[in-house]
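Because discrete structure vocabularies remain unfamiliar, we reproduce here a specimen of the format, pairing a chain with its fold in token form:
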Amino acid sequence: MVVYTITELDELQDWSKEKKIMILDFYAGWCGPCKRLSPLFEEYSQLEKYQDLLFLKVDIELAQDLTHHFSIASLPTIIILDATLQEIHKIVGFRKDTIERTLDTLSQEKYKTENENDQD
């Protein structure tokens, strides 16, 4: 999977048609912790266990409407949305362990839901 960059709310709405959980990384080029998170975010997007998650990056300086819409006050901030664009989780700051635990939980929940549907 690839990490996509978005700058407009309309783009986010278009991505919601994929019916995947969306992981948004709000960042800025001048932000040190954001620079440390960036390669990890790319790595996460490539992992098979996260293939059902959609990874999106949002540069706060280019996407002011999105930044305002999600009330981003600190960087980096990860916002996790369901396919209906409802916020289901928020992680503020570079907290690698928390990010990984959250992604693991999301991918496990997706797996459980799919298996339950297969048994019906």
In short: The domain at 4-119 is CATH 3.40.30.10 (Glutaredoxin). The CA atoms of residues 50 and 82 lie 15 Å apart. Residues 112-119 have pLDDT under 50 and may be disordered. Strands lie at 4-5, 21-27, 53-59, 77-81, 87-92.
